[in-house]
Amino acid sequence: MKLLHHRGWCDGTGGNFSVVVSNDPLRLLMAPSGVDKGSVQPEELIEVNSSGDVIKGVGKASAETLLHLRIIHCCGAGAVLHTHSL
Q1: HSE value, Cβ hemisphere, 13 Å, CA-based, for 36
Q2: Which of 26, 41, 55, 56 could form a disulfide linkage to 50, CB 3.0–4.6 angstroms apart?
Q3: How many separate domains does the chain show?
Q4: What is the pLDDT of residues 15-61, one digit of tens each?
Q5: SS (HEC) of the chain
Q6: Taking the model in full, what pTM does it have?
Q7: CB atoms closer than 10 angstroms to residue 48
Q8: In terms of residue numbers, what domain contains 21?
């Protein structure tokens, strides 16, 4: 996330990135809502289930979590990167 932030592909808390860490059951690792993507630390990441509920970590799932899940479901993606670019 830090490299994407430094390249200007996302600004501060805008956007989010997720990666599939398990397919059965579906689990995503992502940054919690409201954190600066340029400074988020690995231990700050959250894990969410197929309903978008946080099941591990501290923080709230972003409003776009269901969008990430839908893309993964429809496309079989292993990761989703969505930005609010400058």
Answers
A1: 5
A2: 26
A3: 1
A4: 788 999 999 999 999 999 988 877 888 999 999 999 999 999 999 99
A5: CHHHHHCCCCCCCCCEEEEEEEECCEEEEECCCCCCCCCCCHHHCEEEECCCCEEECCCCCCCCHHHHHHHHHHHCCCEEEECCCC
A6: 0.83
A7: 25
A8: 2-82
CATH number at residue 10: 3.40.225.10
Alpha-carbon distance 28 to 47, whole Å? 5
Report in angstroms the alpha-carbon separations of 59 from 10, 13, 29, 47, 73: 20, 14, 12, 10, 24
**63, two tokens:** 């409003």
- Residue bearing tokens 């501060």: 12
